[in-house]
Amino acid sequence: QVQLVESGGGLVQPGGSLRLSCAASGSIFSINVIAWYRQAPGKERELVAAITKIGSGNYADSVKGRFTISRDNAANTVSLQMNSLKPEDTAVYYCSARSVRTGLYEYWGQGTQVTVSS
């Protein structure tokens, strides 16, 4: 089993920045890709960014150039630096890990609220 704990959400004004962190514990060897998803009220959960064990990242078009995902394998943490935030970035952000065995995102954190509002 893998446990994921997010931190760093909050309220920020448009144009501001926030940094989310995800701490992983447990059977770390059983996961490879770690991703950030988000879900806004009334909308489906969407992939925001993902990063492999070797640090290769990819991003949703809506956040490219504004968000940066990074990974510290020694500390088992993944961070999401969010700059130039917009009201439409408001959502609950979830950290998720993909199982090496199944290729599915089987592990999820509890989520952290990000609200962008003036």
Describe this structure in words.
The protein is mainly β and 118 residues long. The protein is 0% helix and 56% strand. The chain contains no helices and eleven strands. The strands form two sheets. Strands 2, 4, 5, 6, 9, 10 and 11 form a seven-stranded mixed beta sheet that branches. A four-stranded antiparallel beta sheet has the order 1-3-8-7, with no helix packed on it.
Describe this structure in a few short sentences.
By secondary structure, this protein is mainly beta. It is built from no helices and eleven strands.
Main sheet, how many strands, which sense, barrel?
7 strands, mixed
Overall mean confidence score, pLDDT = 96
Helix content: under 10%
Strand residues, percent: over 45%
Unreliable residue stretches: none
**Rg, Cα atoms, Å:** 14 Å
DSSP summary: helix tally = 0
Categorize the overall geometry. Answer: globular
Question: Element order, helices and strands?
Answer: EEEEEEEEEEE
Number of strands: 11
Structural class: mainly beta
Cα separation of the termini: 40 Å
List keywords for this structure.
single chain, 118 residues, mainly beta, seven-stranded mixed beta sheet, four-stranded antiparallel beta sheet, 11 strands, globular
